[in-house]
Amino acid sequence: MRSHASAVARVTRKRLAPVLACFAVASAVVEACTIFVLTDPNRALFCNNEDWRNPKTRIWFVPGGDGHYGCAYVGFDDGWPQGGLNTKGLAFDWVAGFMDEWKPGPEMKAVRGNPSQRMLETCATVEDAIAFYRTHQEFGFFRARILVADRTGASVIVGAKDGRLLVEEASQSRGFGFGRRTLDKMLAESSEPNLSNGAKILRACLQDGETATKYSNVFDLRTGDMFFYQFPEHAEAVKLNLAAELEKGGHHYDLPQLREQLTQAPKPLLNNMKRFFVDEFKPIPDKEPRVTERFRSIMRDASGGSLKADDYTAELWKELSPKQAEMQADLKRLGKLLSMTLVGRWDEDGQRSYRYRTEFENATLLQRLVLDGQNRIALIRSESIETKPGAGVGIDR
Known about the structure:
CATH architecture of the largest domain: 4-Layer Sandwich
CATH topology of the largest domain: Penicillin V Acylase, Chain A
Order of helices and strands: EEEEEEHHEEEEHHEEEHEHHHHEEEE
Number of helices: 9
Shape: globular
Number of strands: 18
Structural class: alpha+beta
Low-confidence stretches: 2-30, 393-397
Largest sheet: 8 strands, antiparallel
Helix content: 10-25%
C-alpha cells in the first residue's frame, strides 16, 4: 500500500506517496491497502492490493551482491518500494492509516535510504525481520504498519502502539488493511493457499475512488512465482518468476503494460531504482556558477513559498504555482540546505541540462535542472532521494 513507503512523508502507505514532480518529496498519505497471507504446511502466499492515486506503477529487479540478497520491488515511479520479495522467500508490504506516537530509540541503528528495502535485502526470515526492526530506525511506524512473511508461512505485523514498538507474530492465514472486514469474513470461509482463493479475496477488497487499487499481486514465497492482476480490466494474472527475472540482470517493467513488455527486451533500471544511486555521480568543474547560484535561489524561494513566475516556462509555472505550499512543507522536512554540487552538464534539443547532488540536513537529492533558450526553467525534478541515517524525514508509503 502506499505506506511504503516514510513518515512525515510512504506515512507510509504506500511508500512514498507520490513524489512531487518538482522536488520529489512525498506528501502525507492516510489511505490503506489490503495485505494478507494464505498458508498451510505446504504453501505460503503473500497477497496485496496497492491503493493510491498514482497510476504509474512498476516492478523492478535488483540482483544480489556482496551482503545483500536479490530482490523484486513493487511501487510507483518515485522508486521508493512499497513492497517486495527476496530470493529467500521473504516478502513485505505496508498499510497506512495508523496514527500513533513513535520515535525510534537512540540505541537503534540508523539506516541509509529506505529501511524496508535494507530489511528485505539482508533478512531471510520473519525472525530476522523482527530483529532488524528492533535494532534499526524506521520512522514510518508513526502512521503505518508493515506485514512481513516468509516461506514457512510465518508472518509479523510491525508498527507502533502507545509509543512502543508493536510486534504481532502469527503462523496462520491473516491480514489487515482497507478491506479488513471483507478479508476476515472470507478467511473464515476459506483460507486455502491457492491462487484462485487469493485472487478472489483481492478482488473483493478492491478500493475505488480517488485512491483506487492500482495493482494486485500474489507472491508464492516458496517458488518465487509472482502473479499480477489489473482488476477489473483483466481477470487473468500475469506470471513472473523471481529467479528467472534476476538472471536477466537489473531491469524493470511498467505494470500497466506488463503483458506487452514481457515480449520485449528488458528495460534497464531507472536511476531511482538503483541501490545508492547518488554514489555513481562525482563532482565536475562548475563553469557556470551563476546557474548554480540561481538554482540555490530557486530552492530558497520554494522553501519560503515565494516562487516567481518569470523564472519558469508557462507550462512549468502552470504545474508548480498551485503546489507552492505543498513544496514548502516538503522542503521543510528535508531540513537546512547545506550544499549543491554539479555532477552533470549537457545540451539537448536546444536546452541546457544540469544535474546536482543537493545535500540537506535530512536527505541527499539528485536533482535535474533544464533551462530553455530564453533562460527560463523548463524542468526541475528530483531523480533520486535518499534519507540520511538518523533522519526522520517522512517518505510516504
